[in-house]
């Protein structure tokens, strides 16, 4: 199987219908955060008003927890991707809100883990190199479609896509993606410059169609399937080859699944699937490109989030976009950027954050919204702090400190 270029007549469905889904009701009752860190999983409980939060409760201490997600179809069900203290990648799940856990009987594995040939550049030019394709991290988790209770998707490093149909107990590779000829190139060593390896992330399931999947790969770009992963096509209209290959995170509008938001290495982009063209909207920030600094990108970063009731409202966490790509706030002054008009304009908010000398990183799974009214926004930092805004990102307060390096924050 191979990727097909839509410009060359690839078989795909007509553009998705342009309609809004029902606006979800605001959440009620107590809430919970699941926080994945370098040294364990932690949960923090909050009241409905989100004025009081508990001290973090630890689970799986010593394990590196890349992502932990509560199932919106059954919020007592939680699935986490982790690497044990001994270095073994696996998935664990709980059906009782974290009181008890079960490790996967069959964790994500590629169908063939034998060495294969891939080409790479070195000082002497292109040379063949045999290497073992084997899951190193279960990096991303996404619940399946509402009609497929118990189904989950997982993204790995090196880049791979896996599916579970039994609440995360057993997993199978999505071979339609893995058998694509370009896939070996994308998963070869050195295929991107991510410090701890290329990753498949941001698995999106269309709420209108369980077979419609969109995924992002840190060195392969954004791809789309209309047949539950059997065949795939690139979703890169409007992007250069370089821009198309380096998405950092991708989200889908809750009330309009035809609206996609992408934070990439090159900035913030938006697509409406009816047009199938990415538009660079991050450059619309008032400080979007600093010409005095030689065209430095000020909309670089890792995470992006969308409002559950309005696909025109989105948040990003800008990082220093200079050539050094420090992955830290520019000049040590952290902000969260928000648009309320689909990216035409942006505002930066920092009230409550440190005003200077702040050198944290906010990774791609570390920005979350909670669905309450007023909407709460959360970020987790590499310095082990969780910050919360009760007014859609305008003012911030720290609700947890002293955790290990945070990899993910999700609302349960």
UniProtKB/TrEMBL annotation:
Q: Which InterPro entries match?
A: WD40/YVTN_repeat-like_dom_sf, Xyloglucanase_GH74
Q: Where is this region: Disordered?
A: 1-20, 79-125
Lineage: superkingdom:
Bacteria
Task: Set out the biological process GO terms recorded for this chain's protein.
Answer: xyloglucan metabolic process
Q: Quote the biased-composition stretches of kind Basic and acidic residues, using this chain's numbering.
A: 96-108
SUPFAM superfamilies reported for this sequence: Oligoxyloglucan reducing end-specific cellobiohydrolase
Q: What is this protein called?
A: BNR/Asp-box repeat protein
In its UniProt entry, the species of origin is given as Saltatorellus ferox
